[in-house]
Amino acid sequence: MNSKLPATSGFISQIKTGIGWLIGLIISLVAISILMPLLLKIETVNGNQVGVLETWTGGVQVEPYPARTYFLFPGFSQTMFTYPLSLQVFVMNDKAYNQEFAEGREKDSYLVQSSEGQDMHISLNVQWRIDAAKVVDIHRTVRDNIEEKMLRPVVMRVVKDEATKRTAIEAYSGQGLVKLQTDIFTALVDERGELRSRGVIVENFVIEGIRLDPKYIGEITERQVATQRRLKADEQTKAAQSEALRAEAEAQADLKRRVVEAERDKQVGILNAEKESQQSMLAAEASKRQVVLHAEAQQQKLVLEATGTRDARILEAEGIIAIGKSEAEAQRLKLSAFAVEGSDSYVKVEIAKSLASAHQNVKGYLPNDMNVYTLGNNFMDAIESIVGRQAYAGESATQQPAQ
What we know:
Elements: H1 5-39, E1 41-45, E2 49-55, E3 59-60, E4 68-72, E5 78-84, E6 88-92, E7 103-104, E8 110-113, E9 119-130, H2 135-141, H3 146-163, H4 168-172, H5 174-188, H6 194-198, E10 200-211, H7 214-337, H8 343-359, H9 372-399
Parallel strand pairs: 6-7
Antiparallel strand pairs: 1-4, 2-3, 2-5, 6-9, 8-9, 9-10
Helix pairs in contact: 3-5, 7-9, 8-9
């Protein structure tokens, strides 16, 4: 038995050691779980938020923290504040609203007075968001309840400034209401205005309605009815005038169309007449030119024929002249042949033959006193006369130069 005691005591010792180690581990885990939140802090800035970090040593950090998860160590000395960047709604009205979607007070329509002293209960709706670039300034100056501390005072002042410039009937409805709403919105979104300079961006502004005294509303209604009647009458008058103008315009258009068509027909007629006139003139000119060309051709033909005739006659005359010259020359030469000794007797004999031959058949009366001697003397005298003339002609021919 004694041999088993050391083994048992060793086993018990191991158990005690294990238990001690386990207890130490548990104590360590407990200590870590207690100290871990103090040493390490995990902060998540969501996608529609921006973060502002404060530390014990550095205070508020100058740069905002965009959406993501941050591990802060040591965590006990750092705190992350988050601000929503999504669109928010601020209301001032007498309607019940869901606090999950809008901020404001119950039964909180804004009471202002018009320029003539009428009470106007204005219900309004403002859509706004925080400027991420100025969230650090908002954290330092306002931090929480931004609607009450920043938005409400500015909205009330701007609405009052604009509403009191107008009469109640002007601001109650129609274009006056639209103009009031536009002027208020313009003032709230002004980049140099109070809200924008402090980090609040107004996206939209709507006047939900204006509540007036019922008696005054009756008066406004009567005025509006009268105004509507007058406007209706004006519109009817304008419609009648417009119809008359339309009819007049149609008549003028029809007249103008007819005038244009008539002018067009006139111009077409003029152009056709001018075209026909030009065609007639061209035809006449062509005919005249043909006549002139024909006359010129005839004249040229006559000139050519006359020239041909003249040239032919000239040639003929020249031929005759040449023949005459030839015959004259032949006669001269023949006469020259008789110009030798004894030629006169020969000539006389030949002339006598010719005369005898010419008068051989002459029959008639001869004078009583004529005898053969008388006839002979006269005959010889005639021959002498003829011969003398022939001789003279021969001499002239011999003296004339040859042509």
